Amino acid sequence: MSNSPVDELLALKREAANEIVDVDEPGVKLVVFALGERYFAFRGKFIQEILPGSETLFYVPGMPASIQGVINVRGDIASVILLQELLQLQASRDNQQGPILLGHASGMHTGIRVDELLDVMDLPMSSLKPVPDSLPESLKPYVAALLDFKGKAVALLDIEKVFQDYQEGLG
Amino acid sequence: MKSPAELDRLQLSLVVVHLAHLSLVLDATWVAGCQTLKQASDLPATAVPAAALWPIGEQSRESLRLLTLKTPEGGSWQLAFYGQLEFIQLPAQDLHPLPALMQRRKTWPAVKALISHQGCLRVLLDVPTLQQQALEAGYSQANSRSQLV
Question: What is a biological process (GO) this protein takes part in (chain A) (predicted)?
Answer without folding.
Answer: signal transduction
